[in-house]
Amino acid sequence: LADRLQNTIKKITGKGKVSEADVKEMTREVRLALLEADVNFKVVKDLIGRIKERAIGQEVMESLTPGQQVIKVVKEELSDLMGGEQSKIAVSDRPPTVIMMVGLQGAGKTTTTGKLANYLRKKQNRSPLLVACDIYRPAAIKQLETLGAQLDMPVFSMGTDVKPAEIVQEALKEAKANHNDYVLIDTAGRLHIDEELMGELQEVREVAKPEEIFLVVDAMTGQDAVNVAESFNEQLDVTGVVLTKLDGDTRGGAALSIKAVTGKPIKFAGMGEKLDALEPFHPERMASRILGMGDVLTLIEKAQSNIDEKQAKELEEKMRNMSFTFDDFLEQMSQVKKMGPLEDLMSMIPGAGKIKGLKNAQIDERQLSHIEAIIQSMTKQERIDPNIINASRRKRIAVGSGTSVSQVNRLIKQFNDMKKMMKQMTNMTKGKKGKGFKL
Ligand code: GDP
Ligand code: MG
Asked: Where is the SRP54-type proteins GTP-binding domain (predicted)?
């Protein structure tokens, strides 16, 4: 979504106090971002109304961390918009349970049929029968057969001359005879929706009486995916959506609107071409992705414009060979101060929140002066090799800096965490060509 939204979010997160004006600004950005993503106007209006109501209400204003609370509200409302967690697959009380895949050509129906079969066996101990009903492209039958072979699962096909509805009829008999408890029907798609296709799919539905009709849509097609979903749902009354290719560079606009427009839940997410790349769809994860995608580029730009190039190079070198000391830490702190609030910087590093220890080691601006004092009370040797700072040295440093032993302890821990994090980051960027990450 819009970069502006992310900036607003960053601004508001660090705030100790949120005013009504902040909330207004925030909701305005959210609104723009959603409209930009073509989310239905009425949906946006409702959503913004709810966010405002909750954000200006007690829930946020009386909280200790109102900034974060606003983000939480926005996130919750966004995930609600995408539906609750809905990855349950229907089970027929008279097996086999039939699932029909529909969607445009190239959306990922055939692949998803294979993935879903794999999922059902692995997670629910089921034994599915795959049915090839795309009779227009011989290659499509072959494709499903190949997937079946890879999975060591049966595939039912009758070539390209039998009508799909008939194929399904035979497939159901076969499934009963072989005690397959699920029947997954892969159907044909078109480049565009047309009546002939819909007619055929309706015939298949008549015969198959599926418990689930999964509409497979390609997340990469963005707002087109929403229109496609709407028409398919009108004609076939689907039971759920599988959003594929979410491993690509999609920002989630489609995910946001599909549930809102069709009323049908997104049940699964396709995360790659491999057969195990199918996951239950997690709306709240998607909301985080939409709101908090780490903005590495901005971070790097910021760092580059504020830090002396030469110093940055030296620092980077030190990070690489891990000779980073408390003196560098002190030096770096003054550089970092020029860049603005530390938490802002941290929030721009994707995954930084996940690095263990970092959460507890949140660096508070107000503590910076204490940190300076503590480091200045260390001896030269101690700054180079913090490992030698034992209990009595910690006491001495605390007294010297006018802080407490626990503050000294915390700083040393933070320093070690930071070193660890740097190691992870340099490892992360080492492989990539070009410049590494600079702080
Ligand atoms: P169909 O025409 O709807 O049956 O689509 P296919 O199953 O043949 O898939 C079309 C292409 O999309 C194939 O190259 C798949 O490997 C690819 N594909 C399907 N799902 C995903 C996914 O979740 N991620 C990625 N990256 N590729 C996918
Ligand atoms: Mg196919």
From this structure: 265-278
Ligand nearest to the CA of 133: 2
111 is in an annotated binding site: no
Residue with CA nearest ligand 1 atom 12: 108
Torsion 320-321-322-326 (CA) sign? negative
Task: Return the amino acid letter for 308.
Answer: D
245 in a known ligand binding site: yes
Cα–Cα distance, 89 to 87 (Å, whole number)? 6
Whether the complex's predicted ipTM surpasses the cut of 0.95: yes
Nearby residues of 159 by Cβ (< 8 Å), 6 or more positions away: 135, 141
Most confident region among 59-68, 201-210, 394-403 by mean pLDDT? 201-210
In angstroms, the CA 110 to CA 99 distance is 13
Q: Residue 270: CB partners within 8 Å, gap ≥ 6? A: 108, 111, 112, 115, 242, 243, 244, 245, 246, 247, 277, 278
Element (H, E) at 7: helix 3-13
| Mean pLDDT for the stretch of residues 66-93 | 78
Residue bearing the CA closest to ligand 1, atom 20: 108
Cα within 13 Å of Cα(180), Cβ side: 23
Ligand number nearest to the C-alpha of 107: 1
Tokens of 60: 């946020």
Mutate to test the pocket of ligand 1, among 273, 275, 276, 278 (most ligand atoms within 8 A of CB): 273
pLDDT digit string, tens, across residues 249-306: 665 667 777 887 888 999 999 989 999 999 888 887 777 766 654 333 334 334 444 5
Query: 323 CA to middle of ligand 1, Å?
Result: 47
